[in-house]
Amino acid sequence: MPDRQWRNFYGRTRGKTLRPLQRERLEGLLPRLTLGGVTREENPGREVLDVSALDGPLWLEIGFGGGEHLVHMAKAYPDVTLIGAEPFVNGIAQFLGKLEAEGVGNVRVHPGDARDLLEVLPAGCLDKAFLNYPDPWPKARHHRRRFVTPEPLRLLARAMAPGAELRVATDIEDYVRQTLEEVPPAGFALERGPTDEAWPDWTRTRYEAKALREGRSPHYMTFRRL
Ligand SMILES: C[S@@+](CC[C@H](N)C(=O)[O-])C[C@H]1O[C@@H](n2cnc3c(N)ncnc32)[C@H](O)[C@@H]1O
Question: Which residues are catalytic?
Fold first, then answer.
């Protein structure tokens, strides 16, 4: 049984009005990529998802934004199934445009909160997870909304296989501090970083480009699930 019936999501789920083509992709393409049985409406008993139809190792990107990294990784690793979770509809619409342009097929989506997905994934099914530029929630009283807090990390750790890799990228020094503090007790060992040297297969995301324009620099960390 889930430990909570619902959870608060504090981020934005909608931005400016979508263009007709974006709406068309959300109505036509998104349902074909969406993992069923994740939301509480579809799966009130929180039954474990059957992921046996997904090919190859499963990798998860939490909060993929406009999908730059998700599409890039899917293209670079055609034998992997990349799963992306993102509740911001305008980001999902941008991602669908990129996916279509690149003709990439090995991506599945949960258009919602990653925590809901993690809760119903089979234990140990993920071989890699990416947390790229998570919402910083800069005010101290909002730090508990950050993804690197015990509840989301417990769900993530449960879904990751022993030895699986977790990558975290952030431009916020206090987020580095909290990541180093919170991630190891959730069952991970720090393997690399924090460093300003990106992974060899990294691609710059929209949020990273914005951070650099505004004078903030990237910090990359790699953890290994114990
Ligand atoms: C600062 S943006 C970064 C987007 C993208 N990763 C990038 O680097 O450009 C953080 C993103 O995480 C998403 N997000 C926040 N909480 C989330 C959650 N619980 N599950 C999934 N996505 C989440 C937000 O909607 C937002 O798009």
Answer: 135
Distance 161 CA to ligand 1 centre (A): 23
User: How many angstroms separate the CA atoms of 121 and 38, rounded?
Assistant: 9
| pTM, two decimal places | 0.96
Q: Write out pLDDT tens, residues 19-62.
A: 999 999 999 999 999 999 999 999 999 999 999 999 999 999 99
The CA distance from 91 to 189, in Å, is 31
> Residue 184 is which amino acid?
P
**CB 64 near ligand 1, within 6 Å:** yes
Question: Cα dist. 226→19, 54, 163, 186, 189 in Å?
Answer: 45, 24, 6, 9, 7
CA–centroid distance, 115 to ligand 1, in Å, is 12
Task: Give residue-wise pLDDT tens across range 165-178.
Answer: 999 999 999 999 99
Residue identifier of the C-alpha nearest atom 23 of ligand 1: 63
Edge-first strand order for the sheet with 160-170 is: 107-110, 81-85, 58-62, 126-132, 160-170, 219-225, 188-195
Closest C-alpha to ligand 1, atom 5: 65
The secondary structure element, H or E, covering residue 180 is helix 173-182
Q: Is the pLDDT of residue 4 over 70?
A: no
